[in-house]
Automatic annotation (TrEMBL):
GO cellular component, one term: plasma membrane
Membrane-topology descriptor: Multi-pass membrane protein
Membrane spanning stretches: 12-36, 56-77, 108-127, 147-173, 214-235
Protein name: Cytochrome b561 bacterial/Ni-hydrogenase domain-containing protein
Domain Cytochrome b561 bacterial/Ni-hydrogenase: 10-176
Amino acid sequence: MPAKFSQPYQPLLLRILHGLIGLFTIAAIITAYWTYDVYDGRWGSIPLPKFMEIEGIHGTFGLWTLLIFPLFAIYAFHRGQGRLIQTDSFKKLANFGKPIWWYNLHRLINTLSILAVTFAVFSGKMMNEKWLPQGELNHSWYYAHLISWLVLVICIAFHVLMSIKVGGIPLILSMLNLRFRSKDNPSLWRNNFDVWRDNFDMVMVKQWLSSLDFLKIIEIFVLINILLSWIISLVKEIG
C-alpha cells in the first residue's frame, strides 16, 4: 500500500467498527422513531405506514448494535483513547474559540456519544416487548428509552458536525477509505490477539486499576452497563 495518503489515516479496525456501530445505530434510531410513530405519537408524528412489525425490526438493529458495541468501546477506550476526553480537557475548554478548544470539544462529544449508545442499549433492554403492542406507554423505562433516542440523535449530529469542523471533509472521507497500511493488515489480527491474550493476567488488571482516571471510570461504567444489558437479555430469553 502507498505510504502517503491525501486524507488523514484511520486504522482499519477503527473504520470497520466505527462503520458497523454507526450503521446499526442509525438504523436503530430510524426504526425507533417509526416504532414510536406507530404505537405512540403523543408528542407529534408523521404519516408513516402503520407497519406493526417495526418494533421487532428495531429490536434486531438494537441487538446488532449491542453485539458490536463492546468491541468498539474497548477499542475506543484503549487504541482510540486519544480521540476521547483527557484529564486536562476541561481545563483546555477554557480557551474558547481557539483550535485546542475545538479539538477538546470534539473529544468530549465523542465520549458523550459512547455514553449515549450505552444509555440507549441499556434502557432498551430494560423494556418489555409487550408494552407497546398492549398500549402500555407510561413505563419509566419506556420514557428513558425515548430520552435516550433524543440524546443519541443530538450526540450523533454534533459528532458529525465536530468531525467536519476539526478535520473537514477529508476526515469524513478517511473513515470511508478502503486502503490500509501493512501494519493494519487483517492477517495480523489473529497473531496480535494471541500476543495480547498470552500477556494478559491479573497483575496487568491491578496495574490498570491502580491509576484510575476519569476516562477509566467512564470505561468501567460503560462495560458494566454492556454486561448488564447482556445479562438482562439472557434472563429474558430464559424467562
